[in-house]
Amino acid sequence: MCTGKCSRCIGVTLFPLAACAIVSNILLYFPNGQVLQLSEITDLVWFFQGILGAGILVILPAFMMLGAGGAGCCANRCGMLLSVLLALLGFAGGVYCAVFSSMGLIGGPLCDTGDGEYLYPFRNNTLEYNYLFNQTTWSICKEPENIILWNIVLFSVLLAIGVIEAILCLIQVTNGLIGFVCGTCMRRRKTNISGM
Asked: With b meaning 16 or more CB within 10 Å and e meaning fewer, what string describes 43-76?
């Protein structure tokens, strides 16, 4: 069993997830590819859940995991302990992203309902009457075009990435603690049976 290899594998997996989260968050600033006024962009985008939470706060532990799981570090207990602490930071970033992305999904987008005024038409709906379960209500948003689908897809991607990153960071916490206690690699000893 090699906790160093596991750490390295988790670190490598976190990089593309963090990059996707950053790109998804940036795309939320340009609904349907349009450049809007700052006051016309959904407020929950400004919490930077993809850029900060699932992006920067996960990239830092990913670098440490790669270092702790690098070749020739079979007794790198200090690196594994540091990777545990940073994995907790990554876990917090993933949870942060998941929470604000789910709030963005439930609350719905900021849109023009046809009178030129931007508002949140779905904010006070109960879950029973939520727009996510009733596609016929989507026609209430006139501008930007396809804003509801745009927000649903990108907030869903961010939610999924946040959950996956949080799970991977929790796995690294366990893996790192095992690596700290036992060393990053436990090699099997070969027995010499030639003399028997």
From this structure: ebbebbbbbbbbbbbbbbbbebbbbbbeeebeeb
**How many structural domains are present in the chain?**
1
Tell me the one-letter amino acid at 63.
F
Structure tokens at 82: 């540091």
Helix (H, G, I), strand (E, B) or coil at 170: helix
The count of C-alpha atoms lying within 13 angstroms of the C-alpha of 79, restricted to the half-sphere facing its C-beta, is 21
Q: Is residue 187 part of a domain?
A: no
Asked if the structure places residue 196 within a domain, the reply is no
Global model pTM greater than 0.90: no
Which secondary-structure segment (H or E) carries 112? Answer: strand 111-112
The CB-side HSE value for 9 (13 A sphere, CA atoms) comes to 9
Q: Which residues of 128-141 are buried (b: 16+ CB within 10 A; e: fewer)?
A: eeebbeeeebbeeb
Residue 175, Ramachandran bin (φ over 0: left; ψ between -120 and 50: alpha; else beta): alpha
Side chain identity at residue 29, one-letter code: Y
Exposure b/e, 96-121, CB count within 10 A at least 16 = b: bbbebbbebbbbbbbbbeeeeebebb
Structural domain harbouring 177? 3-182
The residues, any chain, with a CB within 8 Å of residue 180's CB and separated by 6 or more, are 77, 80, 81, 84
Whether the Cβ atoms of residue 133 and residue 19 lie closer than 8 Å to each other: no
In this predicted model, what pLDDT tens digit does every residue of 23-68 receive, in sequence order? 999 999 999 888 989 989 999 999 999 999 999 999 999 998 887 7
